[in-house]
Structure formats: C-alpha cells, structure tokens
Design goal:
CATH architecture of the largest domain: 3-Layer(aba) Sandwich
Radius of gyration: 22 Å
Largest sheet: 11 strands, mixed
CATH superfamily of the largest domain: ANL, N-terminal domain
Number of helices: 12
Length: about 425
C-alpha cells in the first residue's frame, strides 16, 4: 500500500514550495479572495515576509457569506465536481458545510491510512468505530481508510447511532482490537461497562485511537487505566483532514507537512512564533483544496511545533505537533480565568468522579456562578465527593463552585450525539 512517504526533508521542502504556489493560484480564482491577495508576489511565496502578507482566514470570515452564496463566492469548481459535503465540527457558532471533490477525498483518505499505519494497525486487526456517523466525515474516513488497508471494521457510530449498551455487547462478542472515537465517549463506555460489571480492561481492545477533541494527560491516563489499552491521539480539522498522528513512541503527533503547510503565530499580532513556542495554528492544505481553497486558515487551536520529529522510519522526517488547547478554552468567573483544560485535569484526577460538565451563569443579582454537574462512582459517598471537588476547585481557582450530582449516565447521554462534546457551557449570553 503506497502511503506516499517522502524520502527526505528536502523532498518535503520541495513539495511545500510547489504546492504553496498552487494553493495560492487556486485561491485567486475564488470571488471571496478578490482584493485580499492584491500586491502579493506569487513568485516569492517562499519568502516568509511575502507569505505572511496573505491575510489569515477565520471561520467568522466564512460565516459572513450567506449559505446560499457560499459555493459561488468561495468554491472554485462547479457543483458537478462535488461528491460529498463535510460539516465543520466546531462547538460554537453556525456550522459550515464544505464541498469535496473525488480528488479531495482521495488525498484525505491518504491522511487517515497513514494515521492507522503509524499505530501499527494491520489486516489482523478489527476496528470498532464510535465516532458519530453523519455529515461530519471523521467516522466515514476512518472506516473507509481502514478498509483500504485491509482492516476489518465495525461501523457503530456514537451512542445515537448504536446504543452504548449494544456497543459494549459488540466489543464483547466481535472482539475488536482497536477502538476509535472521541475520548469523552470512550470514558462514557468505560463508566457504563464498570456499572454493568463488564471488565473492559480485560477485553480484546489493545489500542485506542482518539481525535476530534483535546486530550489532556488526565483523560489519557484514565482511558488507558479503564480500557487497559494504549491511547493514540490524532489531530485534524474539517478544513484539512487528519493532519497529525501519534506513532508508536507517542512523543507527540507527527505532522504530515508534505500534505499541509502549518505555521504557529501570535494570537494577537499574527507574527510568526519561534520553533517550540505556543501560538495559534495557521494551516494551508497543499493537496485537498480543489474545491474550497483554504489559505492560511486560523484554526482556533493553540499548538507548538518542533521540527525534530525523532523516531524511526518515515515518521522521523516529520515535525512534531503538540496540541495545547483551544483558544476559546476558558471561563472568566468573577475576574478569574478558569482554563478548561486545567479544570478538566482537576476533575478527571479526582477518583470519585466518573463524569462531569461545567456551566457558568449569572444569578438574578448578576453574580457569576461556576456550576459543576458531576456523576459519582457507584458505592462512593456523594457528600464526600462534593466536598473534595469544592475544596480543590477553590484551592486551584479561588472560586467556590455550585455542585449538582447527576444520576449515572445522565451527562454522557447528552454527549453522545455531538461531534465536539459540550463539556463547557457559558450561559451568560
């Protein structure tokens, strides 16, 4: 199976030089870019001072296009070239739907085939797929890529596609070796298995592949403990495809830099960050851009990139991408910034808590309230769990939360239908 691995970093650099120019020329065909690219010398795009003159593209820029005008304004091939649509999986704002050509799909499937290959997956494996099956493409692409690799598949989808109890039954009966899905849903299945007395850590699953939401250290550790399996984190976006994947060493996600040109910029100024510094991810697809010509797309993710990929084999040629958090990932409560990932770590490191959701709202008097809805593991004291959470949140953030204990499974059922789990909700308007 040809995964189009480059032979050297020099080859990757040559691909970037050629494909950046093609991406730029494709963008100039779209009415949306009229005036945005004036004065930029297409022959000097390898000069960083020239490339950064291309304005950043954001989701809000595209949302300003009326849905009925999107194809005419932003797309560069006729409707007849479109074979499917992908839904943008963002958790806020109006969703966007991107048309894809057959050529786009093939380049995207290459990304997913690589993603499976670097985990060590082979035709001896069976993949249980629990990503939501729908207009968001992630579940379909993992399944189709696995089949192209000769790997068996179980197309379950999320809990709204196949009930969670049935998914556990299928894991027990069909004995898949790889489970793929969002980490939050993987925790839900583990909590459900524990409640049913099913030892998921002793099941046939030896590898877990997660994507579509940030994976904290606490969430990774809890998944590995409850499933008894290795977790591989993979990173992508609808505007591109599966862009960066952990290999066997799991020292970071190898960024397919021959398929996507990625930059790290300052969130405020847009200036390029130095290697290893954290900043906003700006991405330009180099191949799967034949209909939607994304150019310097600001994804809303905070990352760092190290050019020394390390490791053996083809992955060693690629830089490492480390996903830090989403740029919108915090609440401000009574003047205090509460980072979502820090709060998530705190909650998942608390052994009595099986699941949680965080909300912020205003009282009638205008006071901010941090409201934590929690599920407590069976057989443990709810009062003790609440006291521990209140004490640790107060110590960490200097904010006293309101706690509501939910019946087991309540929170996870609300997550099941979502591509991006709504774990943090600001209700202040």
């Amino acid at each position: 199976m040809d995964l189009r691995w480059p032979a050297s970093r020099a080859e990757i650099a040559a691909i970037q030089r050629e494909r950046k120019r093609i991406a730029f020329e494709r963008a100039r065909k779209a009415p949306f870019y009229k005036g945005r690219l004036d004065g930029i010398d297409a022959g000097r795009l390898d000069d960083p001072d020239i490339w950064v003159k291309i304005p950043l593209l954001t989701k809000e820029d595209l949302r300003r296009i009326a849905p009925k005008d999107f194809h005419e304004q932003f797309c560069i091939q006729p409707q007849a070239a479109v074979v499917e649509y992908w839904r943008s999986g963002g958790s806020t704002g109006r969703p966007l739907f991107y048309p894809r050509s057959a050529e786009d799909i093939e380049h995207s499937l290459l990304c997913f085939r690589r993603g499976l290959a670097v985990t060590g997956a082979t035709s001896d494996d069976l993949v249980h797929i629990s990503f939501p099956l729908g207009i968001h493409p992630v579940a379909h692409l993992y399944a189709r890529a696995a089949e192209q690799c000769g790997i068996g598949t179980v197309w379950c989808g999320a809990g709204t596609n196949t009930a969670s109890n049935m998914q556990l039954q299928l894991i027990d009966e069909l004995r898949p070796t790889i489970w793929t899905g969002m980490a939050s849903y993987g925790l839900h299945l583990a909590n459900l298995a524990e409640a049913r007395g099913f030892d998921l850590s002793g099941s046939s699953v030896t590898k877990i592949v997660v994507a579509a939401e940030p994976l904290s250290k606490a969430k990774r550790a809890k998944l590995e403990r409850m499933w008894g399996a290795e977790v591989f984190d993979q990173f992508g976006m609808t505007e591109g495809a599966l862009m960066a994947c952990e290999g066997a060493a799991r020292t970071g996600s190898h960024l397919w830099s021959d398929l996507f040109y990625c930059e790290v910029v300052d969130e405020v100024t847009g200036e390029l960050k130095k290697e290893g510094e954290v900043g906003a991810l700006v991405m330009t697809p180099l191949w799967n851009n034949t209909v939607t010509p994304f150019l310097r797309w600001n994804s809303g993710d905070l990352i760092s990139i190290s050019q020394d990929g390390g490791g053996k084999g083809p992955c060693g040629l690629y830089p490492l991408l480390r996903h830090e958090r989403r740029t919108v990932g915090f609440f401000k409560v009574r003047g205090v910034n509460i980072n979502h990932s820090e709060l998530e770590d705190l909650m998942f490191f608390e052994p009595a808590i099986s699941e949680f959701r965080a909300e912020v709202y205003n009282t009638e008097g205008g006071l901010d309230v941090l409201h934590l809805l929690i599920e407590v593991k069976g057989g443990l004291s709810e009062d003790s769990a609440q006291d521990n959470v209140i004490a640790k949140v107060r110590q960490t953030f200097q904010v006293t939360p309101k706690i509501s204990v939910q019946p087991a499974g309540t929170i996870a059922r609300e997550f099941e239908a979502n591509v991006k789990a709504p774990r943090f909700i600001d209700k202040r308007g």
